[in-house]
Amino acid sequence: MTDESTRERAGESGDDGTGLPASIEAAWGLRERPTKGRKPGLSLARIVDTAVTVAATEGLPAVSMGRIAKKLGVSPMSLYRYVAAKDELYVLMQEAIIGDPPALPAPGTDWRTAMAEWAWEMRRICYENLWALRIPVSSPPATPRMVAWWEWGLVALEGTRLDWSEKLSVILMVNGHVRHEATLMADLAAAVEASGRSADAVLAGYGRTIQKLADPARFPSVAEMLAAGVLDVPEEPESPDYEFVFGLERMLDGIDLLVRERGGDSGVGRDRGTGGDRGTGAGRGTGGGRDGGVGGRGGEKGAKPVA
């Protein structure tokens, strides 16, 4: 009997001689749609949409050909006419949720504003689809929308005089920050929910635990930090964006040093003939802080970033 894992191996490459993975063929529309044995109303788009709904409501582990087939009222075998394997379905699900990027940065937009906008948009997508963070990264971006986001990032870095390898590294680094922060926050939120306590109670409990365990003679810096009240529950709630903004700001600061070393300018590339009505991301500030604000805890207790 052919099981799902066997079909996953069979879906590693297309059947029409392109040499591309079946998922990439499907994403780019290079695979012919089945005509023989088609179920009325069944389509690749419906299958992918249903899979996304299952993942969003029940979690990624719930996504299976059997579960999707049941939701659609068809047999699991009928899905294989459209999708060769679950791994292929994962690729198509990611392509569906990422959506198209915003309009390319307007000519004259500085690279920092543009890259901050890129990061905020990618973060929004991550937070709206936290289940997708559980899909392992198995290959570089190769689907249409993924490549479009890649193009957007490269356009943002035009004029910096960074070479292509450095531009790619910048995009990967910023994307890594977005993905890591979203994954960490999702994991912490899940842990807080599982504990049955509030986030403030969990933070306060953690602070007390470390204070009991960390001998000041052995961990003097940790003891000094605890004495400063860094792990105390703040009188005013901090912005949930603080850690993201702080990390993004410092990352962009470092990239800026490299751009200056290269003698690059701050404007985004050449005029691509689309006029000046494209989004610039100015509402989030040139350094990634919303409305131009960065803020931060620093040494000031109660200081908050602008949300």
From TrEMBL:
Record feature DNA-binding region, as residue ranges: 64-83
HTH tetR-type domain: which residues? 41-101
| Ranges of compositional bias, category Basic and acidic residues | 1-12, 263-275, 298-307
Q: Which domain of life is it from?
A: Bacteria
**Alphabetized UniProt keyword annotations:** DNA-binding, Transcription, Transcription regulation
Which residue windows does the record flag with biased composition (Gly residues)?
276-297
User: What's a BP term from Gene Ontology annotated to this protein?
Assistant: negative regulation of DNA-templated transcription
User: Which protein are we looking at?
Assistant: TetR family transcriptional regulator
Question: From what organism does this protein derive?
Answer: Streptomyces niveus
